[in-house]
Amino acid sequence: MVSVSEGETALPAEHKLRHPLPGAIIQIRIDEWLVASTCEIFGGFMALRDIWVEARIKETANANGSRNMSQMHLARQGVITEEMQYVAKREKLEPELIRSEVARGRCIIPANIHHKNLEPMAIGIATKCKINANIGNSATSSNIDEELMKLHHAVHYGADTVMDLSTGGDIPEIRKAIIQASPVPVGTVPVYEAISRVRRPEDLTIGLMLEVIEEQAEQGVDYMTIHAGVLREHVPLVRKRITGIVSRGGSLMAHWMEHHKKQNFLYENIEEICKIFKKHDVSFSFGDGLRPGCIADASDEAQFAELKVLGELTTKAWEHDVQVMIEGPGHVPMDKIKEQVDKEMEWCHEAPFYTLGPLVIDIAPGYDHITSAIGAAMIGWHGASMLCYVTPKEHLGLPNAEDVKQGVIAYKIAAHAADVARHRPGARDRDDALSYARFLFDWNKQFELSLDPPTAKAMHDENLPDDFYKEAKFCSMCGPKFCSMNITQMADAEGGHDQAERKQKFVELLAKVQGA
Ligand code: SF4
Predict the structure, then answer these.
(1) Which among 399, 370, 392, 394 is positioned nearest to 135, based on CA atoms?
(2) Is 359 helix (H, G, I), strand (E, B) or coil?
(3) From the CB of 484, is ligand 1 less than 6 Å away?
(4) What DSSP string runs through 105-134?
(5) Predicted structure pTM score
(6) How far is the C-alpha of 188 from the C-alpha of 186, rounded, in Å?
């Protein structure tokens, strides 16, 4: 296997994708040296996985239908793949740690062998907290360019994965365009496409589902939400709830089971799905079809009954060396968030927990990126590995590109807050660098170090636009006479102290953060 070299050539942080958006550049948040070494070794942008995967396909050529291309399979054979090495560099962890976590199932690297322009990343308790952005159309709004613009915003502002939740128009074409343009893993919910191919939900069959799953796997989808944990016996449990079943996939499966008076066909055919997944290395994102849709319904019998089944399904998938993460709620008040993580870890054998929010209150439509980011920060702190964003449009309409930006920024804040609270090595460096810039009145560095520099600068410049004010020892908040940080510096000076030590520490931190 080829390993990524330690080439140090500096490249700009922005580079074009192999399949760029027309006239657009997606900013990749990746270590510059890694991009440089990729280009150096393989002679072009993002060609690395072509070579890695081709070599593996040759090695397994005789396995035919029974080949297993999953990262977990290789990890369990003791192999440190190129993807694991790549992830280790991004995370600043040892490759062997990544391998052992993937082998153990506590970490996944969603990396379908057909998604060649992917920049491998990892989701797990040992690695930084990740965020997902949902994009995709609905039956009332369908436009490939709009979806690609959402992808651009999502990746530009820092989404670690995207899910294409398209339910209308030419679903395979939209997905193809998204996979080709996306450097981050792409997830889907295959039942949405299956539903688009039948007249009524009750017409769904396992044959159709397997067909859709195989087609999506061949196209390069990295992980799929499979609602196999909602069982027939769970359906009566939701009748006491205020909002019933709020997962689209969960409600469709409940409808199908009640109509046919039969068990969930995804649960009964999980082995067939595993066979497809391991051939292409698709990861399970076991769907929480019974997640609570309001805080009153959180942590109820229905939700936890399904979670236990997800643990059982995890064991089955791991018998095939198929990678798994577990989806979680939803709407949960703050006092019940820790319990969610504890139960998931216990019942699902520490498979990575991938949660939607959760929203901690229900009375703020239009601001649910905030209500949910509070819960997301808490659940990330307690141990969730990936946070699925919620946009301001949640419950109200399909998000547009600006909503995607707002949702991603809110979740970058939540995930970073979780990493800081978990004391991940170096997680606070950028915060400390920005704080030094703030105290030393280096306004331009303060903007640069912020999550959304243009917004920070625009807000500052609203009242003090001139260049002169980029070194001013105040801003328009307190004005020149009442700037407490300037007054502190004056007090220091009167006591015979200058700012040399702070300046030195700032320079050192800056080098660390910018060289990261
Ligand atoms: S004026 Fe107030 S808000 Fe502005 S930099 Fe000084 S202390 Fe901070």
Answers:
(1) 399
(2) strand
(3) yes
(4) TSEE----TT-TT-----EETTS--EEEEE
(5) 0.90
(6) 7
Please write the tens of the pLDDT for every residue from 335-373: 999 999 999 999 999 999 999 999 999 999 999 999 999
In which residue are the tokens 């079943």 written? 245
Q: Are the CB atoms for 177 and 167 separated by under 8 Å?
A: no
Bridge partner residues of 163 (DSSP) = 134, 187
Helix (H) or strand (E) holding 324: strand 324-328
For ligand 1, say whether the CB of 481 is within 6 Å of any of its atoms. no
Please work out whether the CB of residue 475 comes within 6 Å of at least one atom of ligand 1.
Answer: yes
- Give 383-442 pLDDT, tens digit per residue: 999 999 999 999 999 888 899 999 999 999 999 999 999 999 899 999 999 999 999 999
Q: Is the CB of 474 under 6 A from ligand 1?
A: yes
Return the ligand 1 atom nearest residue 480 CA: 1
Q: Whose CA is nearest to atom 3 of ligand 1?
A: 477
Distance 431 CA to ligand 1 centre (A): 17
Alpha carbons 418 and 427: distance in angstroms, whole number: 10
Length of the chain: 516
Q: Which residues, listed in sequence order, are joined to residue 108 by a DSSP beta bridge?
A: 123
How far apart are the CA of 130 and the centre of ligand 1, in A?
32
